[in-house]
Design goal:
Elements: E1 6-12, H1 20-27, E2 33-40, E3 47-55, H2 58-66, E4 71-72, E5 75-76, E6 78-85, E7 88-93
Antiparallel strand pairs: 1-3, 1-6, 2-3, 4-5, 6-7
InterPro entries: Nucleotide-bd_a/b_plait_sf (IPR012677), RBD_domain_sf (IPR035979), RNA-binding_reg (IPR050886), RRM_dom (IPR000504)
Pfam families: RRM_1
GO molecular function: RNA binding
């Protein structure tokens, strides 16, 4: 995707029971999800507690980011926009998280 923009979210604090199907189901509320990935520990097979969601368009990503909070299975998720363009990465957290994280 040289020169193109990837509309990706980092999703942290995932419950260990959440897989890719649950991420798609939840994040499709904000727009069409192009791809998801939950990171798993290769030795144990358990979720590492984070993953990624990629949207097809900016409107979907912005709709998701304007949501004041995200929760799955009773856990508050950490959701950050990760925009990659021409090899450079920029992270942007929710407004309420900006004091908590130095991004």
């Amino acid at each position: 995707m040289s020169g193109s923009r990837m509309l990706r979210l980092f999703v942290g604090n995932l419950p260990w029971t959440v897989g890719q199907r649950q991420l798609v189901e939840y994040f499709n509320k904000f727009g069409v999800v192009a791809n998801t990935k939950v990171m798993f520990n290769k030795e144990t097979g358990f979720s590492r507690g984070y993953g990624f969601v990629e949207y097809r368009n900016m409107e979907s990503l912005e709709s998701c980011m304007t949501q004041p909070g995200h929760e799955l299975e009773g856990r508050k998720l950490e959701v950050l926009s990760v925009t990659e363009q021409q090899g450079q990465r920029r992270n942007r957290g929710f407004q309420q998280n900006q004091d908590q994280y130095d991004l």
